[in-house]
Known about the structure:
- The chain has 20 helices and four strands.
- It has a single domain (about 5-420, about 425-520), classed as Up-down Bundle (Sodium/glucose cotransporter).
- The strands form two sheets. It has a two-stranded antiparallel sheet.
- A hairpin with a 3-residue loop joins strand 3 (about 480-485) and strand 4.
- The longest helix has about 50 residues, at about 160-210.
- The N and C termini lie far apart (about 55 Å).
- It has helices spanning about 5-30, 35-40, 45-55, 60-70, 75-105, 110-120, 125-155, 160-210, 210-230, 255-270, 275-280, 290-320, 345-350, 355, 360-390, 400-420, 430-450, 455-480, 495-510, 515-520; strands spanning about 330, 335-340, 480-485, 490.
- With about 525 residues, it is an all-alpha fold.
- About 70% of the residues lie in helices and about 5% in strands.
Amino acid sequence: MANIDFIGVGVFAAYIVAIAVIGYFGARRTKTTADFVAASGQLGFWTYVLLMVGAVTSGMTIIGVAGLGFQSGWANLWERVIGPPFAISFCTVLVGYKMWTLRNRYKIWTMQDYFATRYEDPRTLRALAGIVSVVTCFAYLIGQYTAIGVVTEVVLGIPYSVGSLIALVIVVGYVMGGGMFSTAWTTFLQSLMMIVGVFITAPLIINWMGGWVAFNELVSQVPVLQQIVRGQTLGYLFGTFLDQPFGPAEMPLVGWAYNLTLFGITVPLGLLVAPHVVNNVLCFKEAKYTRWGPLIMYVLGVPLILGTSLIGLAARVAWAQGQLNIASLTLEGGVTVAWNDMAYPTIAKVALPYGIFILLLPSVLAAVMSTTDRLLVTAASNISYDLVKNVLRPDTSEKTTVWINRLVVLILGVSSWYISLTPQPMLAWFIWAALSLMVNCFFWPIIGGLYWKRMNKHAARWGMLVGFVVTLMSFAIWGKNIIIPGVVALYAVVPGFIASTAVTFILAFLTKPHSEALLKETLTGLFIKSDIPTKH
């Protein structure tokens, strides 16, 4: 018990109480399936904007992006900054404009509702998309529990497994009770806390390193420092590329080709069509939110991710200097490596005043829960609403559907938490794998469905299925990296992206498109804004 920070535990408890109170009022508001799944389209401007920011700037951002900054520095920073802010902004622009009108016209509450309407396929495509969505959300969830376990261990002295269990109990509790209303309202608070936390801590940590100029000079010295102080090679954890915009094409993670396939395709396009992000555009109240909302999302998102990346890089410099120690992690086979995801909380503990450091835990909790709750709502609605109510048992009552939602939330939450008990050295890999499935399954059915008139149900079905299967096979065969020695290294998303694109285009041209009447009614075509009214 001596290592537990009781003041920190008190702050932690206060945060939990605040979230529980908000979740309670969300539960009281939740009466119907539409309330649980999409807040019945009643979210206000700032609630929607911060819901979108919170949906993508998760434990991956606060912990994973900092861990990535620790490992690769500037070598892919510029493309990481483009990804999530680009995704939520352009999802609102490219998907939100049209989906808002379609939601009101056809009572669309989920992405699968859109597929059923646009492709005249209320069963097969809805079921397929629902199953794939559950799988992708499940993979994404694992990384969130990893993040909270990391931080509670460093900040509070609570063991990794116990900390992640606490997060599980909290988030599953309020999502089971209030669905989307609880999720949106708690995310409003959580996103504010996360933004303020990073915006305060990043400048303080850079200042602790000696200021911006000194910090950048030290980054270039890391290879030598880690050799002298840590006894590592110059190239350990991409040390020689930390101050470069990217590495050689044949190098994984930092190479320009790897950057292109991971941070040019997987992250921005995967998040653009991620079910838990796309479903958010069905929740806001007025179409005019799509005017300034995207800009505000981008303005908030870029410095948020940039700040956490710089904190991770600062931790790498301080580690190379010997000013702090990063916990190690033993992988399968007995290989021991630095636990990169410990970077943010570890340097914060050394560099920040105690009063500010202890507030880091609620900020990270906020980041984790603001994504975890949305994923759980999405996955639960995929099963209860899309599969059970709309495919298997259309006569399922509202009350039964809500209870199925709650049961699914519990099962998915517990099972994903259990897998997270065996952590990876960098949780980003979990998130990127999930995003690979998302882009290869949903990009063409959503973007093609909205903007390409030849896109039909055959192309959507088979493109989604082939993308799913080939992506899983690629990761099973090559792992994360596809390497042609001496030539190029690519992220494993590539085969699935090529396969899904090829199958989609071939079938779209070989089979008949849907009727012009349907295409017009579903706002399909090369335009963004059509006859969209300003009020619900």
